[in-house]
Design brief:
This protein is mainly α and 462 residues long. The protein folds into three domains: 91 residues, Orthogonal Bundle (Fumarase C, Chain B, domain 1), CATH 1.10.275; 220 residues, Fumarase C, Chain A, domain 2 (Up-down Bundle); 99 residues, Fumarase/aspartase (C-terminal domain) (Ribonucleotide Reductase Protein R1, domain 1, Orthogonal Bundle). Helix content is 61%, strand content 5%. A two-stranded antiparallel ribbon has the order 1-2. Strands 3-4 form a two-stranded parallel ribbon. The two termini are 40 Å apart. Bound molecules: arginine.
């Protein structure tokens, strides 16, 4: 049991208390950022004369070595240390003795862990943004290749009106575009340096907080020392953005699962992204899509856990906050893994254009257009709606589509029909006529694609 704070105590910590209190098992992944932060602190202590140049250099070298030792496996972060901060300090003292003991001057583990989590989260936001960008590129490729791929659009999971695959996928492009922008916002709000806040009330040493902030690539130091050690808003915002990303992927996965079913066959998930059954030889299951849908719940849980941890905490630091890590890390791991697999699954999926078109042709998806046709011929819309409704019933009874009816059959229900009806309700016309901005016609989609391409080309790399 290696503890930093033995002096005040006359008894050893109970083993169970020690284990319950320790965070090393999960905060050891902060080793890189802990050392990065410690190096910036050491440089700053040197710059204000609290460390001599030799002491500072010795410390920087030793910190580098500690990281190297861990990376190469020469040194192991074991449960014998309370947390990652204790591990680094113990190793530093092992390496450079008395000088190592000076590193924690003007610093508390409260501002240290606040810094570590910000650095770690900042990196995660950058990676997440890169992952979403890659996904957007793959989606745009599918969109560009499918502006003429007609498929049914659904409401209530019932065929509604014809759209195109490009249009359907670009709805998701919009969701992930907003997700990307949300990450930018969070990054801009969280990129402030808490180091120098001390335990809660700053410090009497003349620390140069601007120096550390600049060294670590932050916009500026945080503005209030008590807030600095107790703010976890940025994690809550981030987990909430991650929850929205998962929700978007989960909805998409739900559609893919439906589209991949034997009944739909709109898509074929690549063999490398599906799994079989141990008993039913014919099965090819969309497990990856299902798992992403399932993991969405888990990320919501992580967000909820953190919200509840924070809700009753008085200022400033409380140990409850140590509970931020497992939820945050779990959400980050889950979402980055899900984005990566989802992107690969999309890239390797086959879209069955013929089947989609056939499906659009079958479900009366042109019924609204048929009603609009009658309106153009002078029939009031409400009457047109009724006429087409009766035609649909007639077609259902005779197992045909509206366009399969002869002009005489149509005229029996309304004399307003002319021969040009067939042209008006063909699937291609139904799609092509939808020209408004944001609508599925290939012409409207051309403008959309140009805009989306511009967005990706100029996307901000965090
Ligand atoms: N492991 C702790 C955490 O994650 C580090 C900060 C400890 N500070 C303290 N006052 N005990 O929050």
């Amino acid at each position: 049991m290696a503890q930093l704070w033995g002096g005040r105590f006359t008894k050893e910590t109970d083993r169970k208390v020690y284990e319950f209190n320790a965070s090393i098992s999960f905060d050891k992944r902060l080793i890189d950022v802990d050392i990065e932060g410690s190096k910036a602190h050491a440089m700053m202590l040197g710059s204000i004369g609290l460390l001599s140049d030799e002491e500072k250099d010795q410390m920087l070298n030793a910190l580098d070595e500690i990281l190297e030792d861990v990376r190469s496996g020469r040194s192991e972060i074991t449960l014998e240390y309370e947390d990652v901060h204790s591990f680094v300090e113990a190793k530093l003292i092992e390496k450079i003795g008395q000088t190592g003991k000076k590193l924690h001057t003007g610093r508390s583990r409260n501002d240290q862990v606040a810094l570590d989590m910000r650095l770690y989260t900042r990196d995660s936001i950058k990676d997440m943004k890169a992952g979403i960008t890659e996904l957007l590129k793959v989606l745009l490729d599918i969109i560009s290749a499918n502006t003429g791929t007609v498929m049914p659009g659904f409401t209530h999971l019932q065929k509604a009106q014809p759209v195109t695959l490009a249009h359907h996928i670009s709805a998701y492009f919009e969701m992930f575009r907003r997700d990307a922008l949300r990450l930018d916002d969070i990054y801009d709000r969280m990129n402030y340096c808490p180091l120098g806040a001390g335990a809660l009330a700053g410090t009497t040493y003349p620390l140069d907080r601007d120096f550390v902030s600049e060294k670590l690539g932050f916009y500026a130091p945080t503005a209030n020392s008590m807030d600095s050690v107790s703010d976890r808003d940025y994690l809550i915002e981030y987990l909430s953005a991650l929850s929205v990303i998962m929700m978007h992927m989960s909805r998409f996965c739900e559609e893919i699962i439906i589209w991949n079913s034997n009944e739909y066959r709109f898509v074929t998930i690549d063999d490398s992204f599906a799994t079989g059954s141990s008993i039913m030889p014919q099965k090819k299951n969309p497990d990856i899509a299902e798992l992403i849908r399932g993991k969405c719940g888990r990320v919501y849980g992580d967000l909820m856990a953190l919200l509840v941890v924070m809700k009753g905490l008085p200022l400033a630091y409380n140990k409850d906050m140590q509970e931020d890590k497992e939820s945050a890390f779990d959400a980050m791991d889950t979402v980055s893994g899900s984005i990566e697999l989802f992107t690969c699954m999309m890239r390797s999926m086959t879209f069955n254009a013929g089947i989609m078109r056939e499906s659009a042709a079958k479900g009366f998806t042109n019924a609204t257009d048929a009603a609009d046709y009658l309106v153009r011929k002078g029939v009031p819309f409400r009457d047109a709606h009724g006429i087409i409704g009766r035609i649909v019933v007639y077609c259902l009874n005779n197992s045909k589509s509206i366009e399969d009816c002869s002009i005489d059959e149509l005229r029996q229900i309304s004399p307003a029909f002319d021969d040009d009806i067939y042209e008006h309700i063909s699937l291609d016309t139904c799609v092509k006529k939808r020209l408004t901005k944001g609508a599925p016609s290939p012409d409207a989609m051309e403008g959309y694609i140009a805009d989306a391409r511009g967005f990706i080309e100029n996307i901000r790399i965090l």
